[in-house]
From TrEMBL:
Metal-binding among keywords: yes
Native source species: Nocardioides yefusunii
Domain Cytochrome c: 166-317
Name the record gives this protein: ATP-binding protein
Keywords: ATP-binding, Heme, Iron, Metal-binding, Nucleotide-binding
Length: 404
């Protein structure tokens, strides 16, 4: 097969040639946009799932839908070492520009509030180079969104942004990737601002994406967050959707799959979108001609696995210290033992008890707390419920056992 015509696209956040299995989320978001624009009450949205299921791709697709409706949009990626003010100010600056308010004075006032919100981070005695300027020419608006209390300031900022959008009969959507990495104060402020927008009916929504424990992060901040957001779990694709993800891009290039090849590919990928793209690319490059067969899949599998071992699993494994890697391997061994014993019920993400991991290592749970906490902060594992942990990366346990 011609590698130049290879349609598959394994990459972080890179949109696949066919966004299969996400039609329900896209259709539901179109309804949200219309309702908010008409002043109807709607909740902000939170997408959750493991790494590699396409949360970032879907987040970008939802943003594109908002842009087509002529909404103002902005996107940021949360980082544990960075506060919310500056990246959010940059995202909202872009949103105001996209709104295109016909009265420059009104837009300049809101831009001045955004600038004030951002520069409050620098502090009163900050040097000129520390007074971050997001490219806004409008003068700073003092006394608005600059109190220093992030919750008060964000409510004021969203209120002004919402008023500007309401003037032109549109809305503003803020898209936040890796939302679980926001600091506690920022999460609390974001929840309060979304709550205020829903009560006031202003057309501002937040669309966040994060790991499976993100709902718990939000709930720990504000009890009402369970009712504040519409939570949508983004999971691996069904067999039918996975077949579409493989076949539609191939058919666009006049190539086809044998049924046995599709069965083998689903068994290998488990329906995870990132794995589908990695296997699709490898199989295309290795297959001599169409139709692609199960034998072609078997020949290409080692290449796909090598690609995943380096770009998907290995890059994360390398971030762990020797002690943390030992903890990760113990998690994989515990999950394998539980599955083999057939005793305790294993959930669909492979959660394992922390006490069992300690037993596997022959150590007290308290002594393993530093390694566990470090892995949680690095985003390699998460805790969906008290006393249990799971990998944030699908098939990571399988990779670790193969490495051992």
């Amino acid at each position: 097969m011609d590698p130049i015509r290879n349609p598959y696209a394994p990459g972080a956040g890179q949109r696949p040639p066919e966004l299969a299995g996400r039609g329900d989320q896209l259709d539901a978001f179109d309804v949200v946009l219309e309702r908010v624009q008409r002043g109807r009450p709607e909740r902000s949205i939170v997408l959750t799932g493991l790494r590699g299921v396409g949360k970032t791709v879907l987040l970008n697709a939802l943003r594109s839908a908002a842009v087509r409706k002529r909404w103002g949009t902005g996107k940021l990626e949360a980082r544990p070492d960075q506060g919310l003010r500056r990246p959010l100010a940059s995202a909202l600056h872009q949103a105001v520009r996209e709104l295109g308010h016909p009265q420059p004075g009104e837009a300049d006032h809101v831009l001045g509030v955004i600038r004030s919100f951002a520069q409050r981070d620098a502090g009163g005695g900050a040097k000129l180079r520390e007074q971050w300027n997001p490219g806004i020419d409008a003068p700073v608006v003092r006394g608005r969104a600059d109190s220093g209390d992030i919750e008060i300031d964000l409510v004021e900022l969203f209120t002004d942004i919402g008023g500007l959008a309401q003037d032109v009969g549109k809305g503003v959507a803020v898209f936040i990737d890796e939302m679980q990495d926001l600091g506690p104060d920022d999460v609390s402020a974001l929840c309060a601002a979304c709550h205020e927008m829903s009560q006031s009916g202003l057309p501002v929504i937040v669309v966040g994406a994060g790991l499976p424990h993100l709902p718990a992060v939000l709930s720990a901040s504000k009890s009402y967050s369970e009712r504040l957001f519409s939570y949508q779990r983004i999971d691996r694709l069904t067999r039918e959707a996975a077949d579409v993800a493989f076949t539609v891009p191939a058919e666009d290039e006049d190539a086809f799959y044998a049924e046995a090849a599709l069965e083998a590919l689903f068994a290998a990928t488990g329906g995870y979108p990132y794995f589908i793209q990695a296997y699709g690319k490898a199989v295309w490059d290795r297959a001599p001609a169409s139709p692609i067969t199960a034998e072609d899949v078997a020949i290409a599998a080692p290449e796909a696995e090598a690609e995943l071992a380096v770009g998907f699993f290995g890059s994360r494994y390398e971030r762990a210290t020797p002690g943390e890697r030992e903890y990760l391997r113990a998690m994989a061994e515990v999950a394998l033992k539980i599955a083999a014993d057939g005793g305790e019920q294993v959930d669909d993400v492979g959660s394992v008890p922390t006490a069992a991991v300690a037993d596997m290592l022959g150590k007290k749970p308290q002594s393993l707390s530093p390694a566990r906490d470090a892995l949680l902060k690095k985003g390699l594992i998460y805790s969906g419920e008290r006393g249990k942990i799971a990998f944030t990366v699908p098939h990571f346990g399988k990779y670790l056992l193969a490495q051992a």
